[in-house]
Amino acid sequence: MPKTKTDLEERIARTSYVCGRCGSCRSVCPVYQEIKWESSSPRGKIALAKDIFVKHKSDKITESYTQRLLECTLCGRCEEICAADVHTRVLWLDLRESLRETGRLHPNFQRLGEQVASTHNISPTANEFRLDWTVDLDDFEVPEGKVESEVAYFVGCVSSFYPQLADIPQSIVKILEQAQASYTVLGGEEWCCGFPLISAGMSGEARKLAGHNIEKVRALGVKTLITGCASCFHTWSKEYPRLLGEAGGEVEKELGFEVLHVTEYFARLLREKRLMPVSMAETVTYHDPCDLGRNSGVYEAPREILLSIPGLEYVEMFRNRESADCCGGGGNLQMVDSALSQAIATRRVGAAVESGASILVSACQQCVQTLREAARKERLPLEVRDITELLWEVLDRK
Amino acid sequence: MEVFLKEIFGSRITTDPFELEQYTKDIAYIPPILVRLLAKPWPRAVVQAEEPREIASLMQWACQSRIPVTVRGGGSSAYFNAVPVQAGIVLDMNRMQGVGVVHMTGKAEEAAVWVQAGTTWYDADERLRRQGYTLRSYPTSAPAATVGGWISLGGLGIGSIRYGPLREQILGVRAVTAGGEIVQVDNPGLKSEAEASSEGGGLCFDDFFGMEGTRAVITEAHLKVRPLPEKEAHLVVFFRDVEATGRLMQGLGQISSVFNVHFSSPAFVAALQKKGYAPELPQGHHCLAVDLAGRQSEVEQAVEAIQRQAQSLGGEGLATEAGEAEWSSRFKALRLKQTWPSLQAAELLLPVEHFAAFEEALTKLANQKHTVVVTYAHLVSPQTVLIMTLFPSDELNTLRYLGDLSFISRIYAVGKLFGGKPYVVGLWNTSYLSDIYPPKELKRRWERKQKLDQQNILNPGKAYQAPLFLSRLVFKLGMGFLGAMRPLLSAGRKKDA
To answer: What pTM, to 2 d.p., does this model score?
Structure first.
């Protein structure tokens, strides 16, 4: 059922009324940790929302209010610690939706919406070039639109269109080839998963993308959909059922195929001995991407992969799993305040160095990109890599 | 003012009304009409300190300019402690965070650590655990409350039953006085406040502890900590009868490995279960969650002893998972707001021997007044229980909300009958000052405040004297009137149940 403005306002009012203003959310919020003013804390934002949506103080809708709502990585730390169990992540999305409905969409979000509407991806590049990252793969051809494959690999916009990250999708297909998996990609039929639009408050547009993507994957008749992008994974497994009004249903039952993050799929292949890692003498830590860990519940598969590598010394960062700090790259924050995003990332790479690791691994292109940039700027002795790059490097390729 | 403060704090000052408004409240909702009558909560500026020198400069300037300063930590209390009553400057301590290295100290070679005042208790504990240690006690609001804040409020909570009040776990504090002097005061072997007063001498530890930020600004605390326990256990026992519950509570205070005892009334459990929480707890029972920590053999013996004792009193026990579920949700009491988004509360200290009688009297009062009241409580010493009573209200209906305020005074009155008193003063409980302290003690406290803060700069308007509208007589008349009106303002109360 399409969401009406009244539904949206009621939901915001109901949720924000529950907040007890206790402030448990403050000390874990990556944005508050940087800005340090109360209005930047989750409870500060909810107080404003409560005034506007519960107490109908429309004069509180100001530019400062709008700015604060957008200064959020949607990391979900506030929800995890909330003493009143307020579902803050949905609240932040609803509040962004309300900005859009009242004509207060951030200009960069507006441009993003137009971009996706025009190319069906987040870049200005035409969608038919989605497989440009395969050009350098000389040893095999990546199967495109191959019906009745077992697995469909949903590449995601960042992997597809950012050449500096092309190693990630290349590693994924190389690993799939190595395991002799029956797989396919969608090529130009893959559209943006919609996550950046949902984060921008444009869930209506995201619904159209969801419909298209589901139809195309269903048409392939695959058993499993995998993706290396934590946000695509979260969108497919959590947001699509919600957007399509199928919340509460089992994802597999609703979609007709299972949805896995590549780390889950590769961990399965390792267990089946279809992949055999050889030794690596490095100290490695793992950054839980918010959309894969806290917001989707996948914590163990990436660790299982790392721990399967002989010789690798694995160390945890101070905050990990459900308490992991954000990389700063989520929630479209870079479009609103890139310096703030970078400051959050700097804090996280600092924690990685503190753990004693020489390699920081993540399982999300956005995290890798953000953390890599922070480590470079800070000139830290830290290599930032995607877990699939690392896995491909250590596989026994005989 | 702004120019001077910018010199000290740089970009860490704001006078933007959008920002200032956030500092005009704490966790309790008070109708604006009442706030306007009793306080000027809008600060002229908020500043964020990063080091004691900045606070010293601020205090020196504030004294010269006679501008009040209100210290704010987590802003997680409910009594206006961290909100200005006389405008002025809010000093935000949240940038002063950090946990030092655990070291051995004193003749007893006890483990201790310096923690900065703006660190939350939750964060302090997380960081201590990396060093193989943990806090001796912490508030139930640990994720929000700061070290400085809880010290200022008297520090009773989780772990107090085992390690005593927070006062006994602090070896000393570093602070800035009202006059802007940076000091360090140790706890052991110090003169008491009374001794220091009588001698007209300098600062003592009591000038910092439980003073609600009215005598000095705490910047760092030297806390005793404990090694991570060898064994922890969490169990739940439950009773149909509140009297038996009270008797077991009295017994639990005598068991050395008991770290925390948490009571939930049947109505509290029912309210949580309405929204799907605490499904493991039995309906219609008084529940005690008991948490133990210590050596393995000691804990195992204690668990058996508690189960035997509960059984002999007609109680039953639940599987370990229930205890662990209760323990893991120890910071989540506010889930109650999912059932009743608008609540009012009264928090009081009560002798544990009268706990059951208090609960019975409270239930009777609630029935008489057609009000749903829920209770949760923590045993904070073998003799004392810290009780939180809550009842649904409606902040969107100002008249009903005002009427409901009178019910808080009824709860305190019931508590007083059983030797209870409000836990914290702040602004709202200044009406109860004479219930909390004997007159001589009150006088002495005020004289001490005047001695240390002659200009009354630090957090004025709280903790010592009630403003006119909260003075005993006016307050009683006001509450009497609201109480009489309450039955007429009860729209929606039936639906609460």
So the answer is: 0.95
